Amino acid sequence: MTEQTPPIEEITRPPYIADAAGRRPVVIVDDLHVKYRVFASGKAIKRRGRSLFQNSGRGIRVVHALKGVSFTAYENESIGVIGANGSGKSTMMRAITGLTPPESGAVYAASRPNLLGVGAALIPDLSGERNIVLGGLALGLSRKEVEELRDPIVEFAELQEFIDLPMRTYSSGMQARLKFAIATIKHHEILIVDEALSVGDRRFRKRSEDRIREIRDNAGTVFLVSHSMTSIRDTCSRTIWLNKGELMMDGPTDEVVSAYEESRSGGGVVR
Questions:
Q1: Phi, then psi, of 37 in degrees rounded to 5
Q2: Dihedrals φ, ψ of 58, to 5°?
Q3: What mean pLDDT comes out for the span 136-160?
Q4: Neighbours of 77 (CB within 10 A)
């Protein structure tokens, strides 16, 4: 943050610009640009018969992952983020959490955004029980709070019979359920869920969507990144569509998803 950038408190406390419902802004993305610098080996990379780069010489290539994205997210919103692979969805979420620095522009947040997933803190050789403690502590909970939340976490993850086994013995779905249960047991003012609902059976996805709505209804703001338009429609009232790093649409979910699906079916990209 440069000296010219206003402090977060000045952006998110009165007099701030509320929406029509009087809700306060919790995330402001202002003309955000993100660029990656990657080394090209000298071989042209082909995809669907075309080269990703104009020339095949060796050297540093600049990938412009986000191109001037701007929007404001308000409290009690659940916002879907959609787009094809490589559109910049995960880059934008990492920029919001501070994991990816912007080339220019800025991100302001009323509190620290939390990216769903405590996977980095979990250890495969430890039991699910021990990983609940480890994950809870990583989220900033006290040991007493973790102990009190242990049973709800196990119940939500549906791992009652397996919680004493090493996590490396779990299927990918079981691991994802445990990570989701740990990460969402704590109230989050700003929560980012990146493809976490793509695993598990339909019943667990429904319970996960209900948990996201519960977080939103408790004055939280949720970003859901997903390729499942069903999950987006069922969970989000507002959706942002990214295409090649550009913000294509931002509005009511049905309108944005319909336009996105039309573009994917050959109707062209709406601008």
A1: -110, 115
A2: -70, 160
A3: 92
A4: 21
